[in-house]
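FIELD: query
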Amino acid sequence: MTEFDLVIVGVGGQGTILASDIVGMAAVNEGLPVQASETHGMAQRGGSVINHVRLDCRYGSLIPAGRADAILGLEPAEGLRAIDFLSPDGVVVVNTNPILPITVLSGASEYPEVDAMLGELKGHCKHLVPLDADRIAIEAGHPLTANVALVGALSNFLPLDVGSLEESISNLVPPKTVEVNLKAFRLGRESAGVD
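FIELD: result
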């Protein structure tokens, strides 16, 4: 079975749409029908971005509540915000590094404890993969590859061939960044701790 519903969430500037495009293009390259939808917040860093990606789906592009097979959270609060989309048997792959909104930076509000959010996510999914994607991206060679490291971790659960995902990355990122992005993808895949 290749049907797979994926919600990808993050904030503007994190590469949420690129992560969605990587998965979507890999599916197309494997001959699977793909439907996708995206909602953008502010173009600048800080606005919520949510993408629905449906692989081998015959219905609409929006994933109903409780139906997603996986949530890919590029930011922990955004991952938790999307939890209602997840099936009880679903998987959450989430970056453990928050992006603090302006209200937190200005002192007007507090950001929730990351460990508490991970505990809440754990209570809503079958499998939780918390990932220090920022550290992995730096290890790969560039901090802006955290989104690709997270796609690497998610690849352990997608019904897609790893080679297709790597080909998709190679075709979507700027040519001079292909190697660092592929390294981030592979490190993220290994770091997920899935056999």
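FIELD: remark
The first helix runs from residue 16 to 29.
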